[in-house]
Design the sequence.
């Protein structure tokens, strides 16, 4: 039976997406090409040469989290992603908090990626001599222009948007892989710059590095996967959601793991595994850009830089698409403004919700630019940290909900031993949060956990202040396909279907 939201809430999203189009939003929001150019430097700061090892361990953790979304998407398909999942398994109050949290993550990640597009774009214009001697606000200006493009594509029919996302990120990833293979060939041939070679010590922990530092490095790797679950927001628009959405999420997580481990190994070998190489790795402005210039040709660095800018733009678009679906679902069910829970009659997309989330992204950039006089990279770091801390809480709620549904609802449809998987996932999420708030950061970074907590507190207050709206949201959630309360026999959600085979 097709998903049939209540008619007065604004209509039904068009069910037209195939699996590859669902993969597009997850791949674009994870932004593997942009992440490979920036995130490994944070890992190197804690584990030195063992960056690939940290990403390998992070891959294991991400696959544990992916289990939650795969199992939930095999039963439920809802535009609100964790809002629908958590609402169906833990109740509407928890669902609203989780949905509002993930909405915040997508908005802050939209700021992160549009700012990155501005930074890479400004660097590219400077390198070509088109705009030299730039003022400090140049990346902010390019970010604002990028958000205009994001808004236009976000209100367009989602099928075309996801194809653009997949094409943009796919081309950039292919370019990075080609450059990585060229670097690897030169390393194996023994004619690499600086005499660097393949050194498998990158998969071992340097002496003197404690377990705590290693896990902190794993945290940086784990954060590189953030957004892999974004396809879940397209559950109401996929042709076969119970099969295609889980496959898209799991496929993105597996690809991300292989890709990050391979690319980070080549990056570290390319710079060198000694102390000098690690220091150069950390100081690089564009890891693959610098390596492309040194190992292939000088123009390759410029190509990768513009590729990273395009990747960042695609990620910002994915954030806007995901956030608009979340806001649409929350508003459609009465938690947000009714006008934001409607679809454009001509485009069939939540255009008003898209305008609201893109407007929120630009408002954050404008405050940083005009009020705080912050530097673009400072805003990049701040928004990324805040968004990630919120995301970890949303992941944890979804994992608890999945465990309750699968193992404690009275209806056992998976093997009992699988309870170990969400258990390990919760341990990982809890310790990841702990490592980000203890010891408590100082200076400007002290605001990051506080602002993340404030966003979640607003969600809790929203639930407490509007109990009638929350109850109404619960009624509408349970009226949707698969999102139903326990039946008379107490055997779990009525309408919850057995998982589809992957």
Sequence:
């Amino acid at each position: 039976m097709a998903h049939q939201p209540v008619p007065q809430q604004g209509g039904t999203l068009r069910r037209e997406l195939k699996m590859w189009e669902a993969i597009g939003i997850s791949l674009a929001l994870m932004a593997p090409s942009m992440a490979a150019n920036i995130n490994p430097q944070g890992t190197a700061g804690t584990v030195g040469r063992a960056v690939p090892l940290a990403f390998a361990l992070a891959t294991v953790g991400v696959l544990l989290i992916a289990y939650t979304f795969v199992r939930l998407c095999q039963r439920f398909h809802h535009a609100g992603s964790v809002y629908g999942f958590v609402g169906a398994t833990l109740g509407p109050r928890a669902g609203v908090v989780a949905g509002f949290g993930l909405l915040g993550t997508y908005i802050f990640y939209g700021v992160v990626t549009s700012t990155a597009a501005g930074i890479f774009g400004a660097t590219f214009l400077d390198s070509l001599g088109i705009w030299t001697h730039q003022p400090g606000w140049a990346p902010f200006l390019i970010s604002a222009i990028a958000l205009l493009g994001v808004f236009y594509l976000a209100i367009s029919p989602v099928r075309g948007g996801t194809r653009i996302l997949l094409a943009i990120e796919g081309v950039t990833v292919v370019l990075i892989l080609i450059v990585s293979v060229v670097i690897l060939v030169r390393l194996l041939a023994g004619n690499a710059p600086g005499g660097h070679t393949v050194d498998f010590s990158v998969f071992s922990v340097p002496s003197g590095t404690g377990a705590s530092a290693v896990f902190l490095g794993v945290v940086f790797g784990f954060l590189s996967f953030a957004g892999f679950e974004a396809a879940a927001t397209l559950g109401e628009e996929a042709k076969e959601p119970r099969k295609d959405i889980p496959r898209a999420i799991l496929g993105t997580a597996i690809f991300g793991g292989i890709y990050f481990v391979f690319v980070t190994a080549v990056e570290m070998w390319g710079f060198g595994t000694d102390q000098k190489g690690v220091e150069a790795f950390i100081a690089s402005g564009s890891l693959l850009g610098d390596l492309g210039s040194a190992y292939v040709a000088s123009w390759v660095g410029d190509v990768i830089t513009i590729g990273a800018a395009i990747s960042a733009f695609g990620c910002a678009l994915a954030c806007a698409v995901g956030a608009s679906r979340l806001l649409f679902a929350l508003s459609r069910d009465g938690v947000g403004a009714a006008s934001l829970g409607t679809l454009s009659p001509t485009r069939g997309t939540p255009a008003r919700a898209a305008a609201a989330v893109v407007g929120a992204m630009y408002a954050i950039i404008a405050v940083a630019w005009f009020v705080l006089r912050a530097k673009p990279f400072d805003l990049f770091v701040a928004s990324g940290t805040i968004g990630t801390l919120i995301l970890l809480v949303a992941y944890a709620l979804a994992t608890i909900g999945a465990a309750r549904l699968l193992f404690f609802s009275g209806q056992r449809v998976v093997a009992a031993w699988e309870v170990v998987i969400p258990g390990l996932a919760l341990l990982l999420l809890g310790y990841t949060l702990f490592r980000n708030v203890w010891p408590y950061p100082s200076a400007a970074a002290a605001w990051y956990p506080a602002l993340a907590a404030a966003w979640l507190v607003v969600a809790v207050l929203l639930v407490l202040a509007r109990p009638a709206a929350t109850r109404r949201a619960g009624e509408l959630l349970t009226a949707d396909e698969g999102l139903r309360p326990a039946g008379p026999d107490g055997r779990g959600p009525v309408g919850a279907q057995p998982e589809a085979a992957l």
